[in-house]
User: Fold this.
Amino acid sequence: PESTDEGGGAHRRWREYYGVVDEVLCLRDGEKAVLSYCLQRIPTQRAASGAGVGESGMAHPSPPASASLPEVNGALLWLPGRNDAFFHWHMLPMLQGCGFDLFVLSYRRVGECMRLGFVSNPMHISHTVSGDFGEYHEEMSAALNFIQGGGAGRRYKRTLGYAHSTGAPILLDY
Assistant:
């Protein structure tokens, strides 16, 4: 796919090209965060639902027995900065070449949450309502529970965090 385009068209094409799936994380206060992920292509890969969006909430159903899940090297949880989304598609082949599935967390009111229409107050786009990064702990926990609990249909030997820009203090605060 082309690397530049008006209106986010290239972003959509890259998402389609790599088979990105969005998992909607329903938070206690009624807001939503989005965990987007792209799995390495192995024969037992979970198929995306028709719309590509699943609503699981905080409590995910029990994963299949861990012995039946394929095990891969690791999961990388990418935390973008505020008012940001994942546009680093050039990194995906390298990450997958090293045996990592990629998960990108769009905190409430940023990134994919805006694209999916989950932002109710435009004054809160890209900022915590409280002014405290601790507000994002709930979606961090939900994302890690999904990843480590087999929500994507895999077991991981390790989970690594990578943070860009404001994602770094959010990760450190967590």
